[in-house]
Amino acid sequence: MTNGRFSISLHILTLLEMLSDELLTSDYIAGSININPVLVRKEISNLKKHGLVESKEGKAGGYALAKPARQIRLSDVYQAVRQAPLLGTAKNSPNPSCVVGKQINKHLDALYADAEDVVVKKLGKTTLADFARKFA
Amino acid sequence: MTNGRFSISLHILTLLEMLSDELLTSDYIAGSININPVLVRKEISNLKKHGLVESKEGKAGGYALAKPARQIRLSDVYQAVRQAPLLGTAKNSPNPSCVVGKQINKHLDALYADAEDVVVKKLGKTTLADFARKFA
DNA sequence: TTGTACTGTAATAAATAACATTACAGTATG
DNA sequence: CATACTGTAATGTTATTTATTACAGTACAA
């Protein structure tokens, strides 16, 4: 899966929760993660699409959680960020005239879906509030 | 995780199981997967290291499973291929002077380890024999 | 004992994906 | 209307994957 995005999104959300009494700017967030502010804005643009973050434009603008941290499960974060199967996609097209090649993708897809399912279930057990609590 | 390698390894192993009465060449395998034979040999080199495949050099050489398919769990395949955390690694170094930045990697690592654990457990429930059986 | 059909592996190139940067239009605030 | 932000497009850079070429080493078989 698209490397690093889960980490970054969770980092952003954790910051927003820890400093939930103010709006945070992309510059500030970028400073904590140590990446480019534009990447932060892009990543947040995605989190907004998924209803996890809201933003205010203009001077004194910035970002905040769109709902209480205890209503955000880490599986929601994963789903927001996910864009490829967890175990990777082969970008080859197996030979359809081979018994295995013909069916492998179907079976792999099913297997991946199952594997992904247990991860989602696992991540669903922890909320952002739980996670942020670890940062004393 | 290193994209496509799990798919490719499993494809290889499935072929070896389905046609277990003969040695398969890298050319043949590459033809079914539709990738370069050298990649197949490289991937198999890794599977050999992990005791899943054995090979015979020279004319009439090729590859075969190193043990019965029912003794190979899909988690063994995953472990053989795995080289990075399942949920990705951020390659940034979070700001250590930030409360969140300072601790985030520790907490992410723990979370990732947990998530990976459930996947491995899940994959451990299916053997290569189970998987190959699907290819009627 | 030599040609042939393989594996094993290094080196390199090409393609793709991830990440960074620049630039600037749009918006809210004071 | 100057300032401090977000939003987003366009482009550049770097890293990772995948493909290819090349060839040494090995076993079989005539």
TrEMBL record, chains A, B:
Recorded superkingdom: Bacteria
UniProt xrefs under PROSITE patterns: HTH_RRF2_1, HTH_RRF2_2
Pfam families: Rrf2
UniProt GO MF annotations: DNA-binding transcription factor activity
GO cellular component, one term: cytosol
Name of the protein: Rrf2 family protein
